[in-house]
RNA sequence: GCCCCGUUAGCUCAUCUGGUAGAGCGCCGGACUUUUAAUCCGGUGGGGCGGGUUCGAGUCCCGCACGGGGCACCA
């Protein structure tokens, strides 16, 4: 943005639009500096939340006034002049209260200062509680202080801000204009707090593992790469925390979790942001069935934390269906009999299903069938169980079904929210999986790097364990009824 | 990377076939001591960027930028 837009108007130069609005506000700020010794104080101590005042005077009758003085601070949302009186709406993080200014209380000079405030200015007020004749709980302005002059105009006071581009790029304006936006991010915080609360209560230890990793792993995704100058080596921003957390189980921490950002250098969509918040938790001596129960409980706690009242049944036991069953239900294809690429391709073509089959591997096609034909239908929370081994390099082979692993993905609202395994703990099997991944990589496919330190950890003896990765942004989408990840991330990734 | 749609005043939106671009809110000035989308009077402000066609382009054409949706991608 060009700085020349923001200078006050020079004498004789014609300025319009935003520069003019800013110039007018700057002129007012200048006047404040000249006339008010405390125009820009460093702090304003002793304020009460507006909501507390509204609660405390609920009993007042219309027209009833008190001499109980209260101190509040917030942003001027609206201004209604009435000659020798004025009304302002003041908003803080807890609510909105009307201010009533009168010349017989303030004097004409102070009233003039008050009415020359702009919508968007931050002020502190001392005043007595009253209920106006029209019935609104208000504060009579006995004294006020400008806490910050707003040099730019706020969004429209009733139309609000609806341009999505501005809402995402300048989230502060969205929050300023929309109580709903403020509530959404408060809900997000409550959800995260509930997740931590549940895991803490269950004896999980919150840990922090490297974001900058010498090798990336734990998921299949392209990483962001960066460079450490002193060590003179490339590092990757983590795509998952999985491998480090499992090493902590080897170390005996037994129940651990990490909640934080992962980074994937992939496309942006309504379900994908290049940096996103994930919680992964791992539990020794448990398997994937135990973890399904944990996820149900964890999501139930989070839903209660925000008084979830949507369409999804998050209180009861979630539906469970196997990978093979779910695809058979949705497409009629029996994966257990179409076990090689050619057979599966023939089935897909015969049924006229629109997925890529040219040169596609069996696992690619199977996964495509799931994401295209099953996932969108899974509105009520559902665990899809027992995936083909080819799709899951860190999951343990199924105890009774050949070719499958003990893995589930949890879906709700038509999107994937979580993924879990009975963790693969056998170092020799894990080594074979890495080797298979290397063959994929040399064939040009995305695959796991070979992680010797992780294998060494497994060779120390890793307890049987269940582990879960839960996408926090998607959980927030689900519990707040938003259909885009950009709505629930404060500052989503945008082009410059 | 591909396809479709969008971009007009500080904000929210209009503007038939190409012919002087409008409103509400905001802002500035004035009136008003109980308003709350305050009201009343007067004033102020604009076609994303770059080309082209045309006597004349917000409108038609080309390119670019950004956004939205979809596809691809995303275990």
Description:
The structure is a single chain. By secondary structure, the protein is of the alpha+beta class. Helices cover 34% and strands 25% of the residues. The protein contains 16 helices and 16 strands. The protein has helices at residues 17-35, 50-56, 103-106, 108-115, 164-169, 171-177, 179-201, 242-250, 288-305, 323-331, 341-350, 362-374, 427-442, 452-459, 472-480, 485-488, and strands spanning 65-82, 85-92, 95-102, 122-131, 137-148, 205-206, 212-213, 225-228, 233-237, 255-263, 275-284, 319-322, 382-388, 404-412, 415-422, 465-471. The strands form three sheets. It has an eight-stranded mixed β-sheet with strand order 6-10-11-16-15-14-13-12, with helices on both faces. A hairpin with a 2-residue loop joins strand 1 and strand 2. Helix 7 runs antiparallel to helix 9 (288-305), helix 11 packs parallel to helix 12 (362-374) and helix 13 (427-442) packs antiparallel against helix 14 (452-459). The two termini are 12 Å apart. Residues 1-15 have low confidence and may be disordered.
Strand element count: 16
Distance between the termini: 12 Å
What share of the residues lie within helices? 25-40%
- Specify the number of helices: 16
Q: Report the structural category.
A: alpha+beta
Q: Tell me about the biggest sheet?
A: 8 strands, mixed
Strand composition percent: 15-25%
Strand order of the largest sheet: 6-10-11-16-15-14-13-12
Shape: elongated
Q: Mean pLDDT across all residues, rounded?
A: 88
The low-confidence parts are 1-15
Over the alpha carbons, how many angstroms does the gyration radius reach? 29 Å
């Amino acid at each position: 943005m060009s700085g020349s837009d923001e200078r006050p108007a020079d004498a004789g130069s014609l300025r319009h639009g935003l520069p003019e609005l800013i110039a007018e506000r700057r002129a007012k700020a200048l006047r404040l500096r000249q006339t008010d010794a405390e125009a820009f104080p460093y702090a304003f101590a002793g304020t009460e939340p507006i909501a507390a005042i509204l609660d405390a005077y609920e009993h007042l009758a219309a027209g009833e006034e008190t001499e109980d003085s209260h101190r509040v601070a917030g942003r001027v949302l609206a201004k209604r002049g009435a000659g020798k009186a004025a009304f302002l709406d003041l908003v803080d993080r807890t609510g909105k209260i009307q201010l009533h200014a009168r010349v017989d209380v303030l004097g004409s000079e102070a009233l003039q200062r008050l009415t020359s405030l702009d919508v968007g200015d931050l002020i502190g007020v001392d005043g007595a509680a009253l209920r106006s004749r029209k019935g609104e709980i208000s504060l009579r302005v006995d004294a006020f202080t400008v806490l910050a002059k707003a040099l730019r105009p706020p969004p429209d006071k009733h139309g609000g801000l609806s341009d999505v581009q501005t809402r995402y790029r300048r989230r502060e304006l969205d929050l300023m204009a929309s109580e709903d936006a403020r509530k959404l991010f408060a809900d997000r915080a409550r959800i995260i707090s509930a997740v931590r609360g549940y895991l803490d209560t269950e004896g999980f230890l919150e840990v922090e593992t490297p974001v900058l990793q010498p090798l990336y792993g734990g998921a299949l995704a392209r990483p962001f790469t960066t460079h450490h100058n002193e060590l003179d080596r490339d590092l990757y921003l983590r795509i998952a925390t999985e491998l480090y957390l499992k090493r902590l189980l080897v170390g005996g921490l037994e129940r651990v979790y990490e909640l934080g950002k992962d980074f994937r250098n992939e496309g942006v969509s309504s379900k994908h942001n290049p940096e996103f918040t994930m919680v992964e938790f791992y539990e020794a001596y448990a398997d994937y069935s135990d973890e399904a129960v944990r996820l149900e409980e964890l999501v139930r706690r989070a839903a209660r934390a925000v008084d979830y009242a949507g369409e999804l049944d998050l209180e009861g036991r979630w539906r469970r269906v196997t990978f093979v069953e779910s695809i058979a239900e949705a497409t009629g294809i029996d994966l257990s009999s179409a076990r090689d690429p050619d057979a599966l391709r023939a089935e897909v073509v015969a049924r006229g299903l629109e997925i890529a089959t040219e040169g596609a591997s069996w696992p690619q096609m199977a996964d495509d069938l799931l994401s295209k034909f099953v996932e969108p239908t899974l509105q009520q929370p559902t665990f899809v169980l027992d995936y083909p081994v080819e799709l899951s390099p860190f999951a343990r082979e199924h105890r009774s079904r050949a070719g499958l692993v003990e893995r589930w993905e949890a879906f709700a609202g038509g999107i994937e929210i979580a993924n879990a395994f009975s963790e693969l703990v056998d170092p020799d099997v894990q080594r074979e999986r890495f080797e298979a991944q290397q063959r994929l990589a040399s064939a040009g496919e995305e695959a796991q790097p070979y992680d010797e330190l992780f294998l060494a950890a497994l060779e120390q003896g890793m307890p049987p364990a269940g582990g879960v990765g839960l996408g926090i942004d998607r959980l927030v989408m689900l519990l707040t009824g938003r259909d885009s990840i950009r709505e629930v991330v404060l500052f989503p990734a945008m082009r410059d």
